[in-house]
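Researcher: Next sequence.
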Amino acid sequence: MDFFQEANRNMLHLHALQSIMILLGVADCRVLEGLQRFSSIPTYLPVNYQVVNAESAFFLKEANQEFMRNSSLLSRTEPFFIYQARSMPSVNASYGPLSVEQPVPPELIQHPGAFVASSMFTFNWKVQTFIIQERIYLAKPRVQVLFYVAGRDWDDYSAIDKLPCVRMFAFHETQEVRGTCQLKGELGLCVAELEPLAGWFSPPSVVPGRQRTIELAEGTTVELYYMLQSTDAGECHSEEARKGNSIRSDQEGLFGSSTSTPMRRIGSVRLYQIPAAPFLTEHRLDSNFLVMVPAMPMRQRDTVSAFITASAFSPVEMFTLRVKLKEGMVFLGARPSNPTLWMVSQDVRSEGHRVVTLHCRRKESSYGQRSEVGFQRVLQVDLEVDSFLGPLGSRWITWQVEYPGSHATTQEAETEIWLAQKDLGGIVPLAMDTEILNTAVLTGKTVAVPVKVVTIGADGTVTDVSEAVDCRFHFTNSTKDTEILNTAVLTGKTVAVPVKVVTIGADGTVTDVSEAVDCRSTDEDVVKPASGITH
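Model: Next structure:
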Protein backbone atom coordinates (compact mmCIF):
# COMPACT_ATOMS: atom_id res chain seq x y z
CA MET A 1 0.00 0.00 0.00
CA ASP A 2 1.34 3.41 -0.93
CA PHE A 3 2.46 5.57 1.99
CA PHE A 4 0.14 8.42 1.10
CA GLN A 5 -2.83 6.09 0.76
CA GLU A 6 -2.01 4.79 4.22
CA ALA A 7 -1.62 8.32 5.55
CA ASN A 8 -4.89 9.38 3.95
CA ARG A 9 -6.68 6.52 5.72
CA ASN A 10 -5.07 7.26 9.08
CA MET A 11 -5.03 11.05 9.10
CA LEU A 12 -7.49 12.95 11.25
CA HIS A 13 -8.57 16.46 10.29
CA LEU A 14 -9.27 18.36 13.47
CA HIS A 15 -11.56 21.33 13.22
CA ALA A 16 -11.15 23.67 16.17
CA LEU A 17 -13.92 26.06 15.08
CA GLN A 18 -16.44 25.28 17.80
CA SER A 19 -14.03 25.18 20.74
CA ILE A 20 -12.15 28.30 19.67
CA MET A 21 -15.37 30.27 19.18
CA ILE A 22 -16.36 29.38 22.73
CA LEU A 23 -12.98 30.54 24.01
CA LEU A 24 -12.85 33.82 22.09
CA GLY A 25 -16.46 34.84 22.30
CA VAL A 26 -18.85 36.41 19.85
CA ALA A 27 -17.43 39.92 20.15
CA ASP A 28 -13.93 38.79 19.26
CA CYS A 29 -15.25 37.02 16.19
CA ARG A 30 -16.61 40.32 14.81
CA VAL A 31 -13.19 41.89 15.23
CA LEU A 32 -11.51 38.94 13.51
CA GLU A 33 -13.89 39.16 10.57
CA GLY A 34 -12.98 42.81 10.17
CA LEU A 35 -9.29 42.04 10.26
CA GLN A 36 -9.70 39.38 7.60
CA ARG A 37 -11.69 41.70 5.35
CA PHE A 38 -9.08 44.50 5.23
CA SER A 39 -5.80 42.62 5.71
CA SER A 40 -3.91 41.42 2.63
CA ILE A 41 -1.57 39.20 4.70
CA PRO A 42 -3.04 35.73 5.39
CA THR A 43 -3.61 35.04 9.06
CA TYR A 44 -3.97 31.73 10.82
CA LEU A 45 -5.33 30.43 14.07
CA PRO A 46 -2.33 30.10 16.45
CA VAL A 47 -3.28 26.76 17.96
CA ASN A 48 -0.62 24.30 19.11
CA TYR A 49 -1.24 20.61 18.45
CA GLN A 50 0.24 17.64 20.27
CA VAL A 51 -0.20 13.93 19.61
CA VAL A 52 -0.38 12.21 22.99
CA ASN A 53 0.37 8.53 23.75
CA ALA A 54 2.07 7.89 20.40
CA GLU A 55 5.61 6.60 20.03
CA SER A 56 5.89 7.83 16.46
CA ALA A 57 3.63 10.37 14.75
CA PHE A 58 4.02 12.94 12.00
CA PHE A 59 2.16 16.04 10.92
CA LEU A 60 1.67 15.99 7.17
CA LYS A 61 1.90 18.62 4.50
CA GLU A 62 -0.22 17.78 1.50
CA ALA A 63 1.50 18.16 -1.85
CA ASN A 64 -1.44 20.08 -3.36
CA GLN A 65 -2.51 21.92 -0.25
CA GLU A 66 -4.34 25.20 -0.93
CA PHE A 67 -2.39 28.24 0.21
CA MET A 68 -5.44 29.91 1.76
CA ARG A 69 -6.95 26.87 3.46
CA ASN A 70 -5.62 27.72 6.94
CA SER A 71 -5.68 31.51 6.43
CA SER A 72 -8.48 31.97 8.95
CA LEU A 73 -8.69 32.81 12.61
CA LEU A 74 -11.91 30.82 12.91
CA SER A 75 -10.69 27.32 12.10
CA ARG A 76 -7.59 25.29 11.34
CA THR A 77 -7.05 21.87 9.79
CA GLU A 78 -3.91 19.78 10.39
CA PRO A 79 -3.62 16.27 8.94
CA PHE A 80 -1.29 13.91 10.74
CA PHE A 81 -0.20 10.27 10.64
CA ILE A 82 0.23 8.00 13.67
CA TYR A 83 2.75 5.27 12.91
CA GLN A 84 3.34 3.57 16.28
CA ALA A 85 1.28 3.58 19.45
CA ARG A 86 0.96 1.09 22.31
CA SER A 87 -2.14 2.68 23.79
CA MET A 88 -5.06 4.71 22.49
CA PRO A 89 -3.60 8.04 21.27
CA SER A 90 -5.30 11.41 21.48
CA VAL A 91 -4.80 14.91 20.10
CA ASN A 92 -4.40 17.97 22.31
CA ALA A 93 -5.14 21.46 20.94
CA SER A 94 -4.05 24.41 23.07
CA TYR A 95 -4.44 28.18 22.73
CA GLY A 96 -2.60 30.03 25.44
CA PRO A 97 -3.75 28.70 28.84
CA LEU A 98 -6.76 26.96 27.29
CA SER A 99 -6.69 23.44 25.82
CA VAL A 100 -8.97 20.65 24.67
CA GLU A 101 -8.14 16.98 24.07
CA GLN A 102 -9.91 14.43 21.91
CA PRO A 103 -9.15 10.70 21.53
CA VAL A 104 -8.42 9.45 18.05
CA PRO A 105 -11.12 7.02 16.85
CA PRO A 106 -9.64 3.49 16.61
CA GLU A 107 -11.03 2.89 13.13
CA LEU A 108 -8.85 5.70 11.78
CA ILE A 109 -5.54 4.27 12.93
CA GLN A 110 -5.94 0.52 13.33
CA HIS A 111 -5.24 -1.86 10.47
CA PRO A 112 -7.93 -4.28 9.31
CA GLY A 113 -5.95 -7.17 10.81
CA ALA A 114 -5.44 -5.48 14.17
CA PHE A 115 -7.07 -6.71 17.35
CA VAL A 116 -10.03 -4.83 18.71
CA ALA A 117 -8.70 -2.29 21.20
CA SER A 118 -10.20 -3.42 24.48
CA SER A 119 -9.20 -4.72 27.87
CA MET A 120 -8.74 -8.12 26.23
CA PHE A 121 -5.90 -7.17 23.86
CA THR A 122 -3.06 -4.69 23.74
CA PHE A 123 -3.56 -1.81 21.33
CA ASN A 124 -2.48 -2.21 17.71
CA TRP A 125 -1.54 -5.89 17.80
CA LYS A 126 -1.92 -7.67 14.47
CA VAL A 127 -2.31 -11.40 13.88
CA GLN A 128 -0.26 -12.97 11.09
CA THR A 129 -1.08 -16.45 9.77
CA PHE A 130 1.04 -18.88 7.75
CA ILE A 131 -0.34 -22.09 6.27
CA ILE A 132 2.57 -24.52 6.54
CA GLN A 133 1.49 -26.85 3.72
CA GLU A 134 -1.28 -25.98 1.28
CA ARG A 135 -1.39 -29.49 -0.24
CA ILE A 136 -2.59 -32.13 2.23
CA TYR A 137 -2.48 -35.86 1.44
CA LEU A 138 -4.53 -38.70 2.88
CA ALA A 139 -1.39 -40.47 4.11
CA LYS A 140 -0.58 -37.45 6.33
CA PRO A 141 -3.93 -35.75 6.97
CA ARG A 142 -2.73 -32.88 9.10
CA VAL A 143 -3.29 -29.16 8.54
CA GLN A 144 -0.88 -26.85 10.34
CA VAL A 145 -1.16 -23.07 10.62
CA LEU A 146 1.31 -20.86 12.46
CA PHE A 147 -0.11 -17.82 14.23
CA TYR A 148 1.97 -15.00 15.62
CA VAL A 149 1.35 -11.50 16.92
CA ALA A 150 3.00 -8.63 15.08
CA GLY A 151 3.05 -5.07 16.34
CA ARG A 152 4.21 -5.97 19.86
CA ASP A 153 7.67 -5.47 21.32
CA TRP A 154 9.42 -8.82 21.69
CA ASP A 155 11.33 -7.41 24.67
CA ASP A 156 8.13 -6.41 26.45
CA TYR A 157 7.50 -9.45 28.63
CA SER A 158 4.70 -7.75 30.55
CA ALA A 159 2.27 -8.46 27.70
CA ILE A 160 2.97 -12.20 27.43
CA ASP A 161 0.20 -13.06 29.88
CA LYS A 162 -2.31 -11.16 27.72
CA LEU A 163 -1.79 -13.33 24.66
CA PRO A 164 -5.10 -14.89 23.60
CA CYS A 165 -6.11 -18.39 22.60
CA VAL A 166 -6.53 -19.27 18.90
CA ARG A 167 -9.44 -21.37 17.70
CA MET A 168 -9.10 -22.60 14.11
CA PHE A 169 -11.91 -23.97 11.96
CA ALA A 170 -11.90 -26.00 8.73
CA PHE A 171 -15.11 -26.03 6.70
CA HIS A 172 -16.10 -28.38 3.90
CA GLU A 173 -19.68 -28.35 2.66
CA THR A 174 -21.76 -28.78 5.86
CA GLN A 175 -19.00 -30.22 8.03
CA GLU A 176 -16.58 -28.58 10.41
CA VAL A 177 -13.33 -29.54 12.15
CA ARG A 178 -11.65 -27.47 14.86
CA GLY A 179 -8.20 -27.04 16.31
CA THR A 180 -6.76 -24.78 18.98
CA CYS A 181 -3.48 -23.42 20.33
CA GLN A 182 -2.26 -20.87 22.86
CA LEU A 183 -0.16 -17.89 21.74
CA LYS A 184 2.82 -17.72 24.06
CA GLY A 185 6.50 -17.04 24.45
CA GLU A 186 8.77 -14.17 23.51
CA LEU A 187 7.59 -14.23 19.88
CA GLY A 188 3.92 -14.69 20.75
CA LEU A 189 3.28 -17.61 18.43
CA CYS A 190 1.72 -21.06 18.29
CA VAL A 191 0.87 -23.75 15.75
CA ALA A 192 -2.74 -24.89 15.49
CA GLU A 193 -3.38 -28.34 14.01
CA LEU A 194 -6.43 -30.21 12.84
CA GLU A 195 -7.15 -33.36 10.83
CA PRO A 196 -9.72 -33.20 8.02
CA LEU A 197 -12.29 -35.97 7.98
CA ALA A 198 -11.40 -38.95 5.78
CA GLY A 199 -14.44 -38.34 3.59
CA TRP A 200 -13.15 -34.90 2.66
CA PHE A 201 -10.38 -36.47 0.57
CA SER A 202 -12.93 -38.11 -1.74
CA PRO A 203 -13.98 -36.34 -4.95
CA PRO A 204 -16.39 -33.45 -4.27
CA SER A 205 -20.10 -34.06 -4.44
CA VAL A 206 -21.76 -33.47 -7.80
CA VAL A 207 -23.39 -30.06 -7.92
CA PRO A 208 -26.77 -30.09 -9.74
CA GLY A 209 -26.58 -28.33 -13.07
CA ARG A 210 -22.80 -28.40 -13.22
CA GLN A 211 -21.59 -29.46 -16.64
CA ARG A 212 -17.92 -30.24 -16.06
CA THR A 213 -16.81 -32.99 -13.69
CA ILE A 214 -14.12 -32.05 -11.20
CA GLU A 215 -10.77 -33.69 -11.89
CA LEU A 216 -9.04 -35.57 -9.11
CA ALA A 217 -5.87 -33.60 -9.81
CA GLU A 218 -7.62 -30.43 -8.63
CA GLY A 219 -8.12 -31.83 -5.14
CA THR A 220 -10.79 -30.82 -2.64
CA THR A 221 -10.76 -27.25 -1.37
CA VAL A 222 -11.15 -26.70 2.38
CA GLU A 223 -11.55 -23.20 3.82
CA LEU A 224 -9.75 -22.21 7.02
CA TYR A 225 -10.92 -19.58 9.52
CA TYR A 226 -9.85 -18.51 13.00
CA MET A 227 -11.02 -16.48 15.95
CA LEU A 228 -9.22 -15.26 19.07
CA GLN A 229 -10.51 -15.86 22.56
CA SER A 230 -9.44 -14.33 25.84
CA THR A 231 -7.78 -16.64 28.35
CA ASP A 232 -9.35 -14.84 31.32
CA ALA A 233 -11.79 -17.71 31.68
CA GLY A 234 -8.97 -20.27 31.72
CA GLU A 235 -6.50 -22.03 29.45
CA CYS A 236 -7.27 -23.16 25.92
CA HIS A 237 -9.53 -26.17 26.22
CA SER A 238 -8.35 -29.31 24.46
CA GLU A 239 -11.92 -30.36 23.81
CA GLU A 240 -12.22 -27.50 21.35
CA ALA A 241 -10.16 -29.58 18.91
CA ARG A 242 -13.12 -31.69 17.91
CA LYS A 243 -14.77 -32.99 14.78
CA GLY A 244 -18.38 -32.46 13.90
CA ASN A 245 -20.86 -32.19 11.09
CA SER A 246 -22.64 -28.97 11.95
CA ILE A 247 -21.53 -25.39 11.59
CA ARG A 248 -21.88 -23.05 14.58
CA SER A 249 -25.43 -21.79 14.89
CA ASP A 250 -24.72 -18.86 17.22
CA GLN A 251 -23.58 -15.40 16.20
CA GLU A 252 -20.29 -15.47 18.10
CA GLY A 253 -18.31 -16.58 15.05
CA LEU A 254 -19.61 -13.74 12.90
CA PHE A 255 -19.59 -10.83 15.31
CA GLY A 256 -17.44 -11.99 18.21
CA SER A 257 -18.25 -11.38 21.85
CA SER A 258 -16.86 -9.65 24.90
CA THR A 259 -14.21 -12.37 25.15
CA SER A 260 -13.58 -13.18 21.48
CA THR A 261 -13.01 -11.59 18.09
CA PRO A 262 -15.11 -12.13 14.97
CA MET A 263 -14.16 -15.08 12.78
CA ARG A 264 -11.61 -14.24 10.08
CA ARG A 265 -10.47 -16.14 7.02
CA ILE A 266 -6.99 -17.66 6.92
CA GLY A 267 -7.02 -19.14 3.43
CA SER A 268 -7.61 -22.54 1.91
CA VAL A 269 -5.86 -25.89 1.52
CA ARG A 270 -6.38 -28.65 -1.03
CA LEU A 271 -6.84 -32.28 -0.10
CA TYR A 272 -5.51 -35.12 -2.28
CA GLN A 273 -5.86 -38.87 -1.99
CA ILE A 274 -2.58 -39.71 -3.77
CA PRO A 275 0.70 -37.95 -2.91
CA ALA A 276 2.36 -36.01 -5.68
CA ALA A 277 5.67 -37.18 -7.12
CA PRO A 278 8.69 -35.68 -5.33
CA PHE A 279 10.12 -32.57 -6.92
CA LEU A 280 13.39 -33.20 -8.78
CA THR A 281 16.13 -30.82 -9.88
CA GLU A 282 17.78 -31.29 -13.26
CA HIS A 283 21.51 -31.17 -14.05
CA ARG A 284 22.64 -31.44 -17.67
CA LEU A 285 25.53 -33.75 -18.54
CA ASP A 286 25.52 -33.03 -22.28
CA SER A 287 23.02 -32.78 -25.14
CA ASN A 288 22.05 -36.45 -24.64
CA PHE A 289 21.66 -36.91 -20.89
CA LEU A 290 20.31 -35.24 -17.77
CA VAL A 291 20.60 -36.35 -14.15
CA MET A 292 17.67 -35.65 -11.81
CA VAL A 293 17.98 -35.70 -8.01
CA PRO A 294 15.47 -34.96 -5.19
CA ALA A 295 15.16 -31.33 -4.18
CA MET A 296 13.72 -31.98 -0.71
CA PRO A 297 15.97 -32.51 2.33
CA MET A 298 16.57 -36.15 3.27
CA ARG A 299 16.87 -37.78 6.68
CA GLN A 300 19.19 -40.51 7.87
CA ARG A 301 18.36 -43.93 6.33
CA ASP A 302 16.18 -42.31 3.68
CA THR A 303 16.45 -43.74 0.16
CA VAL A 304 17.54 -41.23 -2.45
CA SER A 305 16.30 -42.12 -5.95
CA ALA A 306 18.11 -40.34 -8.79
CA PHE A 307 17.33 -40.72 -12.48
CA ILE A 308 19.35 -40.59 -15.69
CA THR A 309 17.22 -39.32 -18.57
CA ALA A 310 18.01 -39.37 -22.28
CA SER A 311 16.78 -37.17 -25.08
CA ALA A 312 14.19 -38.78 -27.33
CA PHE A 313 16.35 -37.82 -30.32
CA SER A 314 19.60 -39.20 -28.86
CA PRO A 315 21.31 -41.81 -31.12
CA VAL A 316 23.17 -43.34 -28.15
CA GLU A 317 22.66 -47.10 -27.87
CA MET A 318 25.06 -47.75 -25.00
CA PHE A 319 26.92 -45.75 -22.37
CA THR A 320 28.80 -46.11 -19.09
CA LEU A 321 27.75 -44.16 -16.01
CA ARG A 322 30.21 -43.44 -13.19
CA VAL A 323 28.83 -42.31 -9.85
CA LYS A 324 31.25 -40.94 -7.25
CA LEU A 325 29.87 -40.93 -3.72
CA LYS A 326 31.08 -38.81 -0.84
CA GLU A 327 31.19 -40.04 2.75
CA GLY A 328 27.75 -40.61 4.21
CA MET A 329 26.16 -41.94 1.00
CA VAL A 330 25.79 -45.66 0.19
CA PHE A 331 24.93 -47.27 -3.17
CA LEU A 332 21.89 -49.57 -2.92
CA GLY A 333 21.34 -50.59 -6.52
CA ALA A 334 20.30 -49.55 -10.02
CA ARG A 335 17.60 -50.66 -12.43
CA PRO A 336 16.30 -49.55 -15.82
CA SER A 337 13.33 -47.23 -15.70
CA ASN A 338 11.86 -49.02 -18.73
CA PRO A 339 13.06 -52.66 -18.80
CA THR A 340 11.57 -53.21 -22.26
CA LEU A 341 13.96 -50.65 -23.76
CA TRP A 342 17.13 -50.72 -21.65
CA MET A 343 19.27 -53.12 -19.65
CA VAL A 344 21.86 -52.27 -17.00
CA SER A 345 24.76 -54.09 -15.32
CA GLN A 346 27.28 -53.12 -12.68
CA ASP A 347 31.02 -53.36 -13.28
CA VAL A 348 32.47 -56.08 -11.05
CA ARG A 349 35.90 -54.47 -11.10
CA SER A 350 36.59 -52.44 -8.01
CA GLU A 351 37.35 -48.76 -8.50
CA GLY A 352 37.07 -48.01 -4.81
CA HIS A 353 34.01 -48.27 -2.61
CA ARG A 354 33.16 -44.64 -3.39
CA VAL A 355 32.91 -45.14 -7.18
CA VAL A 356 30.11 -47.11 -8.86
CA THR A 357 30.34 -48.02 -12.58
CA LEU A 358 27.17 -48.94 -14.45
CA HIS A 359 26.91 -50.15 -18.07
CA CYS A 360 23.68 -49.36 -19.91
CA ARG A 361 22.68 -50.81 -23.27
CA ARG A 362 19.60 -50.44 -25.38
CA LYS A 363 17.92 -53.77 -26.12
CA GLU A 364 18.14 -54.94 -29.74
CA SER A 365 14.40 -55.41 -29.92
CA SER A 366 13.95 -51.72 -29.14
CA TYR A 367 16.23 -50.38 -31.88
CA GLY A 368 14.44 -47.69 -33.81
CA GLN A 369 11.78 -47.30 -31.14
CA ARG A 370 11.39 -43.81 -29.74
CA SER A 371 8.80 -42.67 -27.24
CA GLU A 372 7.24 -39.25 -26.95
CA VAL A 373 9.22 -36.08 -27.53
CA GLY A 374 11.37 -34.83 -24.65
CA PHE A 375 13.60 -36.55 -22.11
CA GLN A 376 12.70 -40.08 -20.97
CA ARG A 377 14.00 -41.82 -17.88
CA VAL A 378 16.56 -44.49 -18.69
CA LEU A 379 18.09 -45.49 -15.37
CA GLN A 380 17.14 -45.26 -11.69
CA VAL A 381 19.97 -45.18 -9.14
CA ASP A 382 19.03 -45.77 -5.49
CA LEU A 383 21.28 -44.39 -2.74
CA GLU A 384 20.96 -44.18 1.03
CA VAL A 385 21.87 -41.49 3.51
CA ASP A 386 24.07 -43.63 5.74
CA SER A 387 25.00 -41.29 8.58
CA PHE A 388 25.41 -37.72 9.73
CA LEU A 389 29.03 -38.15 10.77
CA GLY A 390 30.02 -34.83 9.28
CA PRO A 391 28.35 -31.48 9.82
CA LEU A 392 24.74 -31.12 8.79
CA GLY A 393 24.09 -29.41 5.49
CA SER A 394 24.46 -31.55 2.38
CA ARG A 395 26.23 -34.45 0.66
CA TRP A 396 27.70 -34.31 -2.83
CA ILE A 397 27.41 -36.87 -5.62
CA THR A 398 29.34 -36.66 -8.90
CA TRP A 399 27.93 -38.03 -12.17
CA GLN A 400 29.70 -38.63 -15.50
CA VAL A 401 28.80 -40.52 -18.69
CA GLU A 402 31.42 -42.20 -20.89
CA TYR A 403 30.73 -43.35 -24.45
CA PRO A 404 32.38 -46.75 -25.26
CA GLY A 405 34.60 -46.89 -28.33
CA SER A 406 35.41 -43.20 -28.53
CA HIS A 407 36.11 -42.95 -24.78
CA ALA A 408 34.55 -39.52 -24.91
CA THR A 409 33.09 -38.33 -21.64
CA THR A 410 30.62 -35.73 -20.54
CA GLN A 411 31.46 -33.06 -18.06
CA GLU A 412 31.17 -34.05 -14.41
CA ALA A 413 27.96 -32.87 -12.79
CA GLU A 414 27.99 -32.37 -9.03
CA THR A 415 24.62 -32.72 -7.36
CA GLU A 416 23.79 -31.85 -3.78
CA ILE A 417 21.56 -33.81 -1.42
CA TRP A 418 20.27 -31.70 1.45
CA LEU A 419 20.12 -33.28 4.90
CA ALA A 420 17.67 -32.78 7.74
CA GLN A 421 17.59 -34.35 11.21
CA LYS A 422 13.80 -34.37 11.32
CA ASP A 423 10.79 -33.86 9.09
CA LEU A 424 10.27 -30.18 8.42
CA GLY A 425 6.85 -28.86 7.62
CA GLY A 426 8.11 -25.46 6.52
CA ILE A 427 10.24 -22.41 7.20
CA VAL A 428 8.55 -19.15 8.21
CA PRO A 429 10.00 -15.62 8.44
CA LEU A 430 8.78 -13.49 11.34
CA ALA A 431 9.08 -9.74 11.78
CA MET A 432 8.32 -7.90 15.00
CA ASP A 433 6.21 -5.52 12.94
CA THR A 434 4.84 -5.95 9.46
CA GLU A 435 5.71 -2.44 8.28
CA ILE A 436 8.86 -0.33 8.37
CA LEU A 437 8.51 3.40 7.83
CA ASN A 438 11.91 4.84 6.95
CA THR A 439 12.04 7.95 9.11
CA ALA A 440 15.84 8.03 9.20
CA VAL A 441 15.88 10.78 6.58
CA LEU A 442 13.88 12.98 8.97
CA THR A 443 15.20 12.09 12.41
CA GLY A 444 18.74 10.95 11.62
CA LYS A 445 18.13 7.83 13.68
CA THR A 446 18.52 4.36 12.21
CA VAL A 447 15.26 2.48 11.78
CA ALA A 448 15.39 -1.23 12.54
CA VAL A 449 12.91 -4.05 13.04
CA PRO A 450 13.87 -7.43 14.53
CA VAL A 451 13.47 -10.35 12.13
CA LYS A 452 13.57 -14.04 12.96
CA VAL A 453 13.21 -17.29 11.02
CA VAL A 454 11.62 -20.40 12.53
CA THR A 455 11.11 -23.92 11.25
CA ILE A 456 7.93 -25.90 11.83
CA GLY A 457 8.40 -29.61 12.45
CA ALA A 458 6.00 -32.27 11.29
CA ASP A 459 4.98 -32.67 14.94
CA GLY A 460 4.26 -28.95 15.28
CA THR A 461 7.43 -28.02 17.17
CA VAL A 462 8.80 -24.55 16.46
CA THR A 463 12.58 -24.00 16.30
CA ASP A 464 14.33 -20.64 16.02
CA VAL A 465 16.98 -20.95 13.27
CA SER A 466 17.73 -17.24 12.86
CA GLU A 467 21.44 -17.72 13.52
CA ALA A 468 21.67 -20.57 10.98
CA VAL A 469 20.47 -18.60 7.96
CA ASP A 470 21.86 -15.78 5.87
CA CYS A 471 19.90 -12.63 5.11
CA ARG A 472 20.17 -10.67 1.89
CA PHE A 473 18.42 -7.39 1.09
CA HIS A 474 17.83 -6.19 -2.44
CA PHE A 475 18.27 -2.45 -3.08
CA THR A 476 21.17 -2.23 -0.65
CA ASN A 477 21.31 1.55 -1.02
CA SER A 478 18.39 1.75 1.38
CA THR A 479 18.80 -1.40 3.48
CA LYS A 480 21.67 -3.38 4.85
CA ASP A 481 21.88 -6.87 6.25
CA THR A 482 23.42 -7.81 9.55
CA GLU A 483 25.91 -10.57 10.32
CA ILE A 484 23.10 -12.90 11.30
CA LEU A 485 19.45 -12.62 10.44
CA ASN A 486 18.14 -10.68 13.40
CA THR A 487 17.39 -7.16 12.23
CA ALA A 488 16.32 -5.36 9.07
CA VAL A 489 17.98 -1.94 9.08
CA LEU A 490 16.94 1.09 7.04
CA THR A 491 19.38 3.90 6.30
CA GLY A 492 18.59 7.53 5.61
CA LYS A 493 18.15 7.12 1.86
CA THR A 494 14.74 6.95 0.27
CA VAL A 495 13.63 4.37 -2.26
CA ALA A 496 10.95 4.53 -4.90
CA VAL A 497 10.33 0.77 -5.00
CA PRO A 498 9.48 -1.81 -2.32
CA VAL A 499 12.43 -3.48 -0.64
CA LYS A 500 12.62 -7.20 -1.29
CA VAL A 501 13.95 -9.25 1.62
CA VAL A 502 15.09 -12.82 1.05
CA THR A 503 16.44 -15.42 3.47
CA ILE A 504 18.64 -18.31 2.43
CA GLY A 505 18.44 -21.23 4.84
CA ALA A 506 21.22 -23.60 5.80
CA ASP A 507 19.42 -26.30 3.82
CA GLY A 508 19.39 -24.10 0.74
CA THR A 509 15.77 -23.10 1.10
CA VAL A 510 15.15 -19.62 -0.27
CA THR A 511 12.31 -17.79 1.44
CA ASP A 512 10.85 -14.45 0.40
CA VAL A 513 10.33 -12.33 3.51
CA SER A 514 8.80 -9.45 1.58
CA GLU A 515 5.32 -10.49 2.72
CA ALA A 516 6.47 -10.45 6.33
CA VAL A 517 8.21 -7.07 6.15
CA ASP A 518 6.81 -4.14 4.19
CA CYS A 519 9.57 -1.54 3.95
CA ARG A 520 8.57 2.04 3.19
CA SER A 521 10.38 5.34 2.96
CA THR A 522 9.23 8.85 3.75
CA ASP A 523 9.55 12.04 1.74
CA GLU A 524 10.86 14.95 3.76
CA ASP A 525 8.95 17.37 1.52
CA VAL A 526 5.58 16.14 2.70
CA VAL A 527 6.24 14.71 6.18
CA LYS A 528 7.61 16.37 9.27
CA PRO A 529 8.00 14.99 12.80
CA ALA A 530 5.10 15.68 15.11
CA SER A 531 5.96 17.94 17.99
CA GLY A 532 5.08 17.23 21.57
CA ILE A 533 4.94 13.45 21.28
CA THR A 534 4.92 11.73 24.66
CA HIS A 535 6.73 8.43 24.99
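Model: DSSP finds six helices and 36 strands in the chain. Helices lie at 3-10, 17-24, 26-38, 106-109, 252-255, 440-443.
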